[in-house]
Amino acid sequence: MHFEFLVEELSTEAALSNLVPNILEAEHTFAIHPFQGKADLLANLPARLQAYRTWLPKDWRIVVLIDEDREDCKALKGQLEKAAKKAGLVTRTSKKGQSPFQVLNRLAIEELEAWFFGDVVAVKAAYPRIPATLGKKAKYRDPDSIVGGTWEALERELKKAGYYPTGMPKIEVSRSISRHMDVERNRSHSFQVFVDGLKACAA
User: Fold this and answer.
1) Which structural domains are found in the chain, ordered by start?
2) Each residue of 26-39: pLDDT tens digit?
3) Residue 10: exposure state from Cβ atoms within 10 A (0-12, 13-18, ≥19)
């Protein structure tokens, strides 16, 4: 089976390039298509899905992944579902988890960086000066509920540990941490929902 990932930016592409091979079996192939931000992805998604509809092979799946960014997650997911329905494509949600479906819509809550906080071991492997106890701090125990933005929180912790004093390079950090991530130990619920969805696509 082949997977087409539509993501909002290059940092997500960097992370998925490392993560997807650890989620899917080796016989599956994938391509990742980053957009120029969330607004760009949402604006172009309807036309992109309609284009896929005209030639999509039976053994291809489309995965749309965007950050929730403290928006109404139900409304955001509904927007993705509506775009797929308008294009004549079947989503996993519309099939209520049953196969076959062509599109998997997923949200990173609230941002991709929450997935990194879900695996502090990976963060420390990439950045050894990060304390091993980071994930035990009350504000980070639930990666999907970090207040004030996960991107900002990760940048703050990296700076505190002596990394990137002039600002966090998102693509580099994303690539570095995801290289060490263990799919099974991640504490982010939205990450596990993403993983379960991919595995359902491949089943």
Assistant:
1) 2-112+188-202 (3.40.50), 113-178 (no CATH)
2) 999 999 999 999 99
3) middle
